[in-house]
Design brief:
With 480 residues, this protein is an alpha/beta fold. It contains 16 helices and 18 strands. A hairpin with a 5-residue loop joins β8 and β9.
Amino acid sequence: MDRTGQELVVSASAAATAGAPAGDPRPAGDPGPAGTPASDTALVAKGDYGALSTPHLSPILGRYFERSWDRGEGHTIYDSAGRGFLDFACGIATTSLGHHHPAVTQAIKDQADKLLHICNALGYLEPVGQLATMLADACPDPLDTVFFGNSGTEAVEAALKLARRVTGRPGIVAFRGAFHGRTFGAASITSSSINYRLGYEPLLPSVYLTPFPNVYRYFGDDEEAATAGAMGALRTLLGHEIPGSSVAAIIIEPIQGEGGFSPAPVAFLRELRALCDENGILLICDEIQSGIARTGKMWAFEHAGIVPDVVCVAKALANGMPIGAIVSRRELQERWGVGAHGTTFGGNPVSCAAGIAVMKTIAEQGLIANAATRGDELIAGLRGLMAADDRIGDVRGRGLMVGVELVRDRATREPDTETSEALVQACAEQGLLILNCGTHHNVIRFLPPIDATADEIARGVELFGAALQSLPRNGTSAGI
């Protein structure tokens, strides 16, 4: 413990003793019941932020860990006991430049000293306009106009509202297994977990779900079959349930995130773009998890050489500061209409200043190329583990958005949820922070910082392999 920590403990002990009333039966040094100032001071000194939080923090939020986190530096995050973890979760693809990044931190400090907030409805701010320009420049033509919100789910809500109002059509088509957010509109097109929908009906009307081309799980690793099968199902939907002329938008994650880190085949995305053009349907790409250089391109849809009508952006754009955005061609947002949508906090100047620093860093340090190179190394390392351990059924992804699917049997591809859940914890014990996902929660997701080094990728693979080998085998195995 450092000197500051010692002083905190002494201070907490003194406060606890001083706070006990005369005749109090508590032992000396007992801070008393949780929630009292003396108790809270003592819990902070101990680094027990869970005990500090649970009396009044809502229990509704699911948590991967009960660990108390204290600080981050570079690509390492530290718990309150001072133990460091190689962070390959990045706050779920958010802190893509790591923690305490000097350029981002300085930009936040400089803007905080200047102006924390003024609603953008009152006029114009330099960091907001500058980030809008940079974001538009990072998108292919004709995507040139940005609306800022606070989060990914807000970006999705804005995109859905724009689509319905501009087209005058009611229908929204989304893909099974997708995650787009938890507000009512976003939850209506989310199906990665039934728990995100349970008890909230009726959800948004005129929403239709269609199969996603999950190459590994449903189409035997055959991209052509996946493309044909998913496109066939979509055309059947448009032929029997809602005509294309009534569909405002089709929304897709080019790589499904929460649904299992499954990339849509290039051919499928191209056919989807063509189908939307045939029917006057807006194509919305949700790049909230896959965007901002994560996949070895600025946007995951670029792997297919297509351009959507609307792009949803959030997470990594400001490296942890809250922000969301949609980008479209200007004509669409002009038709949307002044006052048709709005926000109090969206486009906060501090968040936008952080976003500017992120975009500059990506460009100056060549991080799109770095993500591609490090991603190749990560996939190669994980496939090496797969060759030696038949609990790994598949390794897939693009750039530094990589999924490892765990199975009980390679032949049947039965999901191994139990090992996946245990592996997240085992990796933490090894000093590696990763998370899982998937409709069966059996996919380990790797989201290293996009400025990770080759040594860090190798170290992450090593720690993951050690954690996997530490776990007992469950069920049957078909062998390599």
